[in-house]
Design brief:
The chain has 334 residues and is an alpha+beta fold. The chain is 40% helix and 12% strand.
């Protein structure tokens, strides 16, 4: 339990932790969660050694109002400055911790639970649960007693199918546009860019591509021309949505109830994809690229599944050996 959790060990995150400590909050009650292996990853990776990390950004004069007044410094000087701040203010940073959600406890109150990759939650769907999930997804495609599509449920169905077959995060799925669907290449472009400005791509099954074609809205008509604007979001915010953030919790929980699946969160669909990928002989480094992990250590949690699966399937090697034995015994060698 912490009084303050900060996401990101960049200049702002470290400065906030130092200010909080100076204001009287016990440093042991302050935690920074950083998805990279070090603090200030962007400065380390993107700034040349001699380039100044300037306090003034694009002509906007910096005004110091707190403890840490940052002057124009070189990259090494900047990193040394923050190393000293971390040491002097006893800043506690948990590295390789990817944050994917915050939840308010059921009993309410002012506290939140921050969910991150450091939780080491290993929940993923079994083969039977996957079948039940698909059955529950399919049974409400049409409105009861009609041939009319249940648009609300079809939206959830499409979101779940993308999550479980690509490992994409909920925020990445909600950010998908029709122009990101690369039918010819069999890929989905993920708009959350990697460091260095590179775009990330995830594989798209032919079956998923067909589902997306069916889900695509009817082209709008302008004069005699029908068209779909490629920049349009695949899952635009609902009319009653408040704020920019979108969730699937309530409808997803109803889906889990009908599929008789317990102790499962939406983010566990990502774990399900990664787990089954490794159990089917997937490569750990390729999985890291698909999931968009900035550090292989975030992906290594799935390596044990590959080892366990290989150990369980040793019976296949035994069968092959038994098939070879008669030939070895009867072969006339020399």
């Amino acid at each position: 339990m912490h009084a303050l959790i900060i996401i990101g060990a960049g200049p702002g995150g470290i400065a906030l932790a130092a200010e909080a400590s100076a204001s009287g909050i016990d440093p042991s009650q302050i935690l920074i969660l950083e998805k990279g292996p070090t603090h200030n990853s962007a400065i380390r990776q993107l700034y040349p050694e001699k380039k100044l990390t300037t306090a003034n950004y694009k002509g906007f004069a910096a005004r110091c109002e707190g403890l840490l007044c940052v002057r124009d410094m070189t990259k090494p000087e900047t990193l040394q400055f923050f190393d000293k701040i971390i040491s002097d203010y006893h800043v506690n940073i948990q590295f390789n911790a990817e944050v994917y959600g915050m939840r308010r406890p059921a009993e309410g109150g002012a506290r939140f639970r921050v969910e991150s990759s450091q939780d080491q939650r290993d929940r993923y769907l079994s083969q039977g649960e996957l079948r039940r999930l698909k059955e529950a997804l399919d049974e409400k495609v049409y409105r009861k007693g009609t041939n009319d599509f249940n648009k609300t449920f079809c939206r959830l169905r499409m979101i779940v199918l993308i999550a479980v077959t690509t490992g994409m995060r909920a925020s990445e799925i909600f950010g998908l546009r029709w122009s990101d669907v690369m039918y010819n290449e069999g890929l989905l472009a993920v708009r959350t860019k990697l460091k260095g400005g590179k775009m990330r791509y995830v594989p798209m099954l032919p079956e998923l591509a067909e589902e997306l074609r069916l889900f695509m809205p009817k082209p709008a008509k302008k004069g005699n021309v029908r068209f779909i604007v490629n920049r349009d979001l695949i899952f635009p915010p609902k009319a009653e949505a408040k704020g920019a953030r979108r969730r699937v919790e309530s409808s997803f929980e109803d889906l889990l109830d009908r599929a008789a699946i317990e102790d499962f969160r939406f983010h566990d669909l990502r774990h399900t994809f990664a787990s089954w990928y490794m159990m089917n002989g997937g490569d750990l480094y390729e999985l890291a690229k698909i999931l968009g992990h900035s550090n292989i250590k975030m992906t290594e949690r799935y390596a044990k599944l590959a080892k366990q699966h290989i150990a369980r399937t040793s019976s296949t090697a035994r069968v092959m050996w038994n098939l070879l034995e008669p030939a070895c015994k009867t072969a006339n060698v020399g």
